[in-house]
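For practice. Any example?
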Amino acid sequence: MILRLSLSALLLAGAVTGATPAAAAAVPSAVVQARTATTPVLTSPDDWRRMAEAGGQYPMFAAEQARVERMVRAAMGREIDVPVPRDPGGGYTHEQHKRNYQAIYNAGALYRLTGDRAYADFARDLLLKYADLYPTLGAHPAGRGQIPGRIFWQTLNDSVWLVYSIQGYDAIRETLSAEDREKIDGQVFRRMARFLSDETPNNFERIHNHATWAVAAVGMTGYVLRDAEMSEKALMGLKRDGSAGFIAQINQLFSPDGYYEEGPYYQRYALAPFIIFARTIEQNDPERGIFHHRDGVLLKAVDAVIQSSYGGYFIPINDAILDKGLDTEELVTGVAVAYARSQDSGLLSIAERQGRTLLSPDGLRVAQGVAEGRARPFDFRSILLRDGADGAHGGLGILREDGEDGQALVFKATAMGMGHGHFDKLNWLFYDNGQRVVTDYGAARFLNIEAKAGGIYLPENNSWAKATVAHNTLVVNERNQFGGDWRIGEDRAPEVLFFETGEGTQIVSARQTGAYDGVVFTRTQALVKHPDLGLPIVIDLLRATSSTAARFDLPLHYNGHIMNVGFEAQRAVAERPVLGRADGYQHLWVDASTAAAEQTRSLTWLLDGRFYTWRFGASAPSRAILAESGANDPSFNLRREPLLIQRVDGQSEVSFFGVLEPHGRYDGTAETVTGADSRIQDVKRVRGDGAEVIVLTLASGKTLALGIADDVTTGVAHSVSADGQTWRWSGPWARLDR
């Protein structure tokens, strides 16, 4: 069955590729005349022609074409290799099949851009080999999970193969003989689409990134093969009633702000199938208005994932690998497609950072914009990205000062994030001077490195990386939040209480109920400026109440070399005891610890030429424990990273407070040190009736005070008194030193 291509689609194709009004008006008749059962439908012939004619004028596009030509020519110079699958991720056959889909995808584009039939023939020959192999395959011998793939060890990778291979095939399909086309259509693409949909419904019908790749693959295949039923299944689910499929995934996996449920790392990965398939839908079914769906949430998602980065790398919350950043293939796609629709010149600066674009109509628009000097710095800004389809399941707060590589306070009050979520409600991270200062471990995984469990998540991902103590948030009785069951966490999202970004004080607050039975805790953090402090500081207040007396631990994972331990502690110099037995504590060596005391303490460390002092205390006598990850790790899977734990025992109510101050400079080349001493002399907490005040005494003699109320209702008056002084304000918070 030949799918319709409406007049609006053809006009839109001209608009998207930057055609002049006259050229756009000329497109419909030309395309209608040329349209056959094999005409490319993922990128129109006119778009291919425009890229071929104009691409060389724009250095970024020309460079990408040259890069792809080198890669494909190298592949063409080798014997075609379509091996029988046997290896897990990272193994030879796994990597070879990845190289093959990249070759098919790129050879198709090069054929259209150059007219060189050799590229089409190469892609055809590869696909014919798959047509011989694929019908012989059963479950992958190294299959992972309940639904192993055929070409790869998991269906996810099979879906990725199909997403990219169908694009290359669409570009060359009309060059094939009827016999070859029928063989490849039937033995590769129809078989694979059927496997990924009707034969594996439990995967296809999920609301999850694995299913997104599957529905994108099947839907794009349906458009190319002119199989409307196949595409409709991808869009609306196997029952075609909207209970599953691509539209349901858009509706359920993104918040109204474009935040993706599993966090930035998986948002980056899931972005590709969402954007690529949406581009296909726009091209073939423009009346769906897919990029306008839910107030343009897919384009918002591109902005949201860029916002969720620092120094070019994604903020590593949930299962995240630290070295993934803005230059990933998926975000190259997202930036190109989003720019072509929004004309946001800030996206061009991201493309410049990426150093490349796509061989697509959208990539041509990016290359043109960059060549014409339209790029402007991306607007990295303070932002609250709400979580949940309705935006009411917590959120990710990012408070920024001093530009892209200045200070960034990340406050994680998001929902669970499904199975890739960590037990870290009300966790925080801090970036400064281009560095990770207060850190998150991310995932315990060496992606595709066979020597490390075949490249999958390591056992320590559960025993350490997901554990609450591996994060900068409250641990009760040395146990993981939600009892270590993410399914329980799914139903108990934090509540964001307020988020404000005023001049000199940016502040966010959230409350978590149900992470531990009978425990409620509220955390408020502020990024604060003061003329007597060289750089913005972080003020942190965490208040917890419990129905029974408990042990409360508050870890701080920091990056740097200790300069000064501002408290007396018993050092473990001959032996390193292990802190606990389970829930991450078994992986912690104790280096030093103190007795319980009411005093405020400090710790100073040095990172990349800047000093950081953390001053901390509690409302009850507390201990300080200096520790390091890596205990009970016989396979050396864990990174050795330091942390500080503040511990309060036997209380049913506690407030932890702390201040993080960046200061000074160490220049190793010039051998000079300036500002190594903190500019804060003291920090204290004053509790009143339903409110607290954090008071900082500065070296200059001035004070900085922040009032924080339990009741966050606007207009409610609060008063806190101590030592003959009274602080009054109304509302959830106030700067009280002005």
About this structure: The radius of gyration is 28 Å.
